[in-house]
Amino acid sequence: MRQIVLDTETTGLDWRTGDRVIEIGCIELDGRRRSQQYFHCYLNPERAVDPGAMAVHGLTDEFLADKPKFAELVSTFLDFVRDAELIIHNASFDVGFLNNELQLLDLPPIEKLCGNIIDTLKMARDLRPGRKNNLNALCAEFAVDNSNRELHGALLDAELLADVYLAMTRGQNSLLIDFGTTAGASVAIATEHPPLRVLRASEDELAGHEKVLAEVDKQSQGKCLWSASQ
């Protein structure tokens, strides 16, 4: 399966108020391996970059002034992502911005062009509920080196996200079935296990356990669940 890990940088936080895309970075995964194919561009947004956004990605108005407009590169970009599965961190943000750019050119939304969109932020929240799940936190969790990430950058962040995604989904490799094997081929499955060693508590240990339970029950004034069930 061909997958594209995608990230964008923008002039601000909300395309509804006129913010625009200023950088797109895409990394291709082919069969869960990073290929040599990628797409990267800086874009002239035809408006000023908000100071808060500039502090995040470091892209200035002067730097972007001579860069191409989205309309000039849209065909190349769409050809690169066409029919691929997109992998995006906080997908609603990037998809909203990209669809706004496409709508300004009377083009259909990105969902019509790509088969599926995976939101790695949602995946991470399911795997790590209640914890930070930004890209830096996930790099730390899955031992992905992000020491070069002083500022956000679409291509760099797409590269890091590709490694994070592969680490998060590594267990899925064992679920894949090779339907290309020849007839009569067999799959070896380990069925023998070493005998389990069972250690039983001694009389003194059981008595100590009951003593601790009685003390806990006393402190809770008889509200322990195991007492109520007796």
Distance between the termini: 56 Å
At the fourth CATH level, what is the homologous superfamily of the largest domain? Ribonuclease H-like superfamily/Ribonuclease H
The low-pLDDT segments are 173-198
Topology, number of strands: 5
Number of helices: 10
Largest sheet: 5 strands, mixed
The fraction of residues in strands falls at 15-25%
Give the overall silhouette: elongated
The CATH class label of the largest domain is Alpha Beta
Domain module tally: 2
CATH topology of the largest domain: Nucleotidyltransferase, domain 5
CA radius of gyration: 26 Å
Mean pLDDT: 85
Helix content: 40-55%
In N-to-C order, the SSE pattern is EEEHHHEHHEHHHHH
Order the strands across the largest sheet as they lie in space. Answer: 3-2-1-4-5
If classified by CATH, what would the architecture of the largest domain be?
A: 2-Layer Sandwich
Structural class: alpha/beta
What features would you describe in this structure?
With 230 residues, this protein is of the alpha/beta class. The protein folds into 2 domains: 2-168, 2-Layer Sandwich (Nucleotidyltransferase, domain 5), CATH 3.30.420; 202-230, no CATH class. It has helices at 51-57, 61-64, 70-81, 91-104, 110-113, 120-127, 135-141, 154-168, 203-219, 225-228, and strands at 2-10, 21-30, 34-42, 85-88, 116-119. The protein has a 5-stranded mixed β-sheet with strand order 3-2-1-4-5.
